[in-house]
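Quick board copy: two proteins, each given as sequence then tokens.
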Amino acid sequence: MRYAQLVLGPAGSGKSTYCATLQKHAADDKRTIDVVNLDPAAEYFDYQPLVDIRELIHIDDAMEDEDLRFGPNGGLIFCMEYLLENPEWLEEQLGEGDDDYLLFDCPGQIELYTHMTTVRQLVELLQRWNFQACVVFLLDAQFMIDGAKFLSGTMAALSVMVNVELPHVNVLSKMDLLSKTARNQLDSYLEPDPHSLLGEMETKSKWGVKYRRLTEAIGRIIEDYSLVRFYPLNVRDEENIADLLLTIDNVIQFGEDSDVKTRDFDYPDDDDEGGDT
């Protein structure tokens, strides 16, 4: 069995930083986690990718081609579709190892996950290649301190969950960048009350008053899907990183098929059993 995290989230949510952080944490723990860069527009990241989509196709190829002439968004979509049309390249790059653990650092174009089938097709390929996978959906912590942003981010995460159809872990990134006051409100960020946060929208804007029933309906959807639990990520806290990785490992059942150790300690010699005479 092989294992994978599909690291998704809006642009600027810290996906590449997350991948680099987990890779370094694993190396310090004598464990191997490799990263696959699937962002054809990436310019810089802090990890050495095992596979890099830019070796197959770069966004400039789609934007500068005389026949295509795509913009940035269209170019990203074209590159991802081109990758899926050439799955043998990706399969060859990934190899046929056993017990591989990969992070797929995906582009920040949210429509690739929310209403297109691109990522779902990628998931089907990975499952065919014996990968046990889950989605790690990153949101900047600032989305939890404002009702409107909370609504937008949570509904995006819900849309990804429904569209991709994989086990789903929501992560609040950039917790280390929050102010001291915001960090003191950590509990309300991790398990926010949608009605409380959405209620702020009702009292602060004419739109909120006019569409109160719609707001309440959205709040019920969020509660019904139990998608209002988030895991914090402070990239400067090794214990926090270890706890998050353990949670994700449990979700994808990493290590459950490992050989059981039959000897964890030294047995006493037969001569020692009788003691002194």
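And the next:
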Amino acid sequence: MAQYDLLTPCVTLFVSEIWRPIKKRIGYCLKPATHVCNLEKSAVDLEDTIDTVQDKIKVGERAGKRPRTQTTRWIESAQSVHDESQRIKNDYEARSTHAFGCSWNCISNYSISSAATQKLIDVDGIKRRTPQDDSMFCLLPPVGRELPLPPNIVGQNEYKDRILYYIRQGTVRIIGICGMGGSGKTTLLKQVNNMFSCAAETHEFDHVIYVEVGQQQNLKTIQQSIASQLGLTLAQDENTLSRSASLYSFLKERKFLLLIDDLWQTLDLEKVGIPHGCRKIGPQNRKMIIITTRLQQVCHSMKVQDQVILLKRLKFNEAWTLFEANAGDRLNKNAQIRCYAKIIVEKCGGLPLALKIVGQAMASKESESEWKYVVMLLEQSKFHKVPDAERDLYSVLYISYDHLQNERTQQCFLFFCLD
């Protein structure tokens, strides 16, 4: 009996530590089909899981959700493991066989079985880490980008309230903001952008998109800018029609506010890929566009009629407030400088940009003679003879140029103006 008691631990140790590993290795040589078959079954299940996760992501994206980085990384890892499993299966099927369809190449059998067994562990491991519905997506992102604004904005509350009324009424498609250069169109548009660029669950729009166009209208650049804000990737080699179709497909079931700044000519929204037209509109189906332009004919060609907001020049009190905010408090400390400042404000013609530029240029001027010199420049200016509605800005630009730090900086200014 004592002999059995001594023999049992030895047998157990032999079986667990020696025989089972040997048997496993022998099985690698003799039964590669079993190991490859087990791997194939698990890999097929993994492929189904990948397809399910990708389908859920597509549904979520249509609802404005965005997959987490961990989710996209899981898909990449799972696809890689699946591809490696397929390669092992292909290696098994490509091995040389002899009688009865068997292969007597033990080294090849062992290698394939060992690889299949290890890859099966990887497949099962990645399946256990499959993203769940409650952790697959990020929290709803902001619907737009908050843009920087100047610190002192005056005279725009009335325009802003009117735009907000049109937006919240939900019965118009396109709103136009029209005014001469420097009148505050861009600042007004950015304020609207920032008001609606908040979390998607708290506002009316799924997306708020801000695009700058300029004189050199480039359709591809406009499409790329819109796509990047929507989180879409447009291939560089895609043609205009393909990019248009991608944007249209994404936006057609979404509520969006498209803000187009600085239009100089008609923009073909259809070519861009922006859904618009005769579909029923209202608070539950908002696809709204706001444009800014210097030219009223652009508003008319974009089918903006009753909803054109014309920006007027600032009244003197508003202009003074803006100029004072940029020039500093010395205006109230020296009566003569204050007198010169009032003349300068009058010459700026109520244009916010002019008042800001000249105010900043004068902020460092402490002597009365410096202020008197600027008044003289403005009064002797020949720019009033220029046949342009925006001639008030020319003399302002000259003052800004004249107060640059040195001649080299002035030359750089002229170079970029002429470029």
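Board note added afterward: The chain has three domains: 31-135, 157-310, 316-418.
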